[in-house]
Every structure is written in structure tokens, then in C-alpha cells.
Amino acid sequence: MKMMSKRGLVTAVAAAMAVGASFAVQAGVEVYGKARMSLDFINNDDSTAGNEDSAVSLSSNTSRLGFKGDEDLGNGLSALWQLETQVDFDTGSAFQSARNTFVGLSGGFGTVLAGRYETPLRIVTARFDPFSDTKGDYNAIIGNIRGNRLFDNRTPNIVSYASPDMAGLKLHAAYSFNRTSDDLPMTTTDSERELASVGAGYERGPLYLAASYEAIGNLTGADDGSAYRLGAAWNFGQGTVLSGLFENADRGGANGERSALYASATHKMGDNSLKAAVAVADNVDGISSSGATQLTLGGFHSFTKNTEVYALYTQVNNDTSGTYGLWSGSQAVAGFADKSVSAISFGINHNFSSK
Question: Using an 8 Å Cβ cutoff, are 326 and 333 in contact?
Fold first, then answer.
């Protein structure tokens, strides 16, 4: 699809809001979205001849536009659907990168979805990242092995189940035919691309616990990959939340496994929040000094429940053989061995909905 102009994007969004508003009366259709924009001062210590090692950029940090609805089928059963796409507010391009898009059923048994969706590995641990959708996103290291984000992705051709809340416990399971094509002829290599993921989250009072596991067949074209996570968060009251996460990830084959730790703290004071996080990637097996450390600090101010502004600083320090960079959705900033990557970011987050 050709890149949409900024004027075209604005027109499309306005038209979608108008159509969604008229449909909402008849069929419960909601048009919604998230605008995530930031002005970034970035440095990656790039020593390549002819390349700049710093830049000022305007980023759209996984902004999106979506349509969703549901229908009451009676006897406590509902049909639901969603179509969501990434929108790059900095360039005006849209409808080129699919996000959570599915159709499903929901009832007393829980919810079953089919389409493109997040895996349980990601779902039960996403809340541990207070810098999601910014240049401080924890996917710089979590789900990432030496700069390659192999886990924490949305997956096509997935069937996903979420249980109802059972005294604070929610279970998740998913299976995906994780292929580039569903049709024959199909290569043996592509037929082996599959994914299975399970997760559980338990919330009771100030405590939240999470555990998840994911296995991906033929992850790198030759080997299977897997990852598991264990996490906990505690709400101390008066706006203070501390959380920690352990992850072991393996891309398969030789020199493919590494562990990582992530810890974050958030303190809310009225309309203002202070946030801090640190992530540490251990060495990949068989590659010495291949780890990295990320430190992120930020301040956020909410004008309303839908609009906030923020300022943050994040830095990834690579070991001698580490190659991690910054990550914010598809907005990757490359890292180099024995170099640091950093960003000073000033942003605005705005949520909108026809309801």
C-alpha cells in the first residue's frame, strides 16, 4: 500500500470517527485509537564512516487506530471482533502494519479469539513495563537477544483462550500456525513454523504474580526457540508500585540462550508520576561479554485520563560483545558492541474513542 499523506490520514481518521459514531448506535461499534508522539535526541555511538552518531527525530511510538464491536447472542454469550492497525503520525502512513485483529466468542467459559493477537507470554507480563510505547520500552532487552526481538510479538493465525477471573487467577493459552502462508503448496520449513504459549496471572489485594512460557517452532529457519518468565508486583498504596521480572530466552542452536532481569518503580503524586526502570541482559551462552544494561528515568503529567505528557532519559550500555539498542514498537535504534545507545525524549500520549 502506498504511503498515505498526512492530509489523507487526517481525512481517514475523521471519516472513521464519523462512520463509527453512526454504527455505534446500531451495532455497538467503537472507533478508538492511541496517538503516541515524541521529540527525541538520540545517540548510538555509531563509528561507521559516513554515518551520524546522533540525531534529532520525531517519533510515532506504536500509535494506532482501531475498530471493535460486540453482539449479544443470548444466554450469556457474546460475539466480538476487532480490527487494529498501526498509524505513523510522524510520516502520515497508515493501514500498513496490522496489530490485534480478531473475531471471537465470550461467555461464562472465558474468551476465545482467532486472528492476529498477542501471546500469553506477553499478555501476563506487559504491566511490568511502565515505559511501554516510549523510547524506554523494555523490549530493548526483554524478549530480545542481542538486538533481535524474537519474543513478545503479535502472532498471525492464532487461536487464543483467556479464562474468566477465578478468585484473582486468570489463565491464558494460545496456539498459532505461525506461517507466512496458510495455502498449499507449502514448504516443509514453513509448515514447521508454529507457536504455543501459556500464561497465568494472579492478583489479590496489592500483589500481582505472573508466570508464562512460549515455544516457537523453527524460530530462526532451522531451530526451535523458547522463553519463560516469572514476575511479581506489589502496590504499596499512596501511588507506589514496585515490580520485578525474570526472563530466560533461547533462540535455539548454539550460542542462543540468555537470561535477563527487569525491575521498575512508579510513584504517583496527584496528576504527576515518577518512573524508573533497570534491565540487565546476561551473556548469551558461549559468547563472553555479550550482555547489556538499560536504565530509564522519566516524569509524566496527566492533564486528563486521556492525555499525558512526559520527559524521559534512557540508556543502553553494551558489553564488549553486546549489540542491544533501543526499541519502541517498530522504531528500532541500532546498538553496537561496546557502545552505548541513549535518548532524551519529550512526548505526548493521547487516547481517543467514539464512545
Answer: yes
**Which residue shows C-alpha cell 541513549?**
342
Q: How far apart are CA 57 and CA 227, in angstroms?
A: 33
Structure-block grid coordinates of residue 119: 501471546
Backbone angles phi, psi at 128, to 5 degrees: -75, -10
Sequence-separated contacts (24+) of 128-131 with Cβ below 8 Å:
128/210, 128/231, 128/233, 128/243, 128/244, 128/245, 128/262, 128/264, 129/262, 129/264, 129/277, 130/264, 130/266, 130/275, 130/277, 131/264, 131/275, 131/277, 131/296, 131/298, 131/312, 131/314
**Residue 41: per-residue pLDDT:** 95
Q: Is 229 left (phi over 0), alpha (psi -120 to 50) or beta?
A: beta
Provide the pLDDT for residue 50.
86
CA distances to 28, 60, 285, 318 from 329, rounded to whole Å, are 29, 9, 27, 21
- The pLDDT assigned to 168 comes to 97
Q: Which residues of the chain have pLDDT under 50?
A: 1-6, 10, 20-26
C-alpha to C-alpha distance for 117 and 194, rounded to whole angstroms: 14
DSSP structure class, residue 253: S
3-state secondary structure of 142: coil
- Distance (Å, whole) CA 30 – CA 80: 12
Question: Does the pTM of the predicted model rise above 0.85?
Answer: yes
Helix (H) or strand (E) holding 310: strand 307-318
pLDDT at site 13: 53
Residue 16 DSSP SS3: helix
**225: CB partners within 8 A, 6+ apart:** 150, 151, 215, 216, 219, 249, 250, 251, 252, 256
Give the pLDDT confidence score for residue 4 in this predicted structure. 44
In whole angstroms, give the CA distance from residue 339 to residue 343: 14
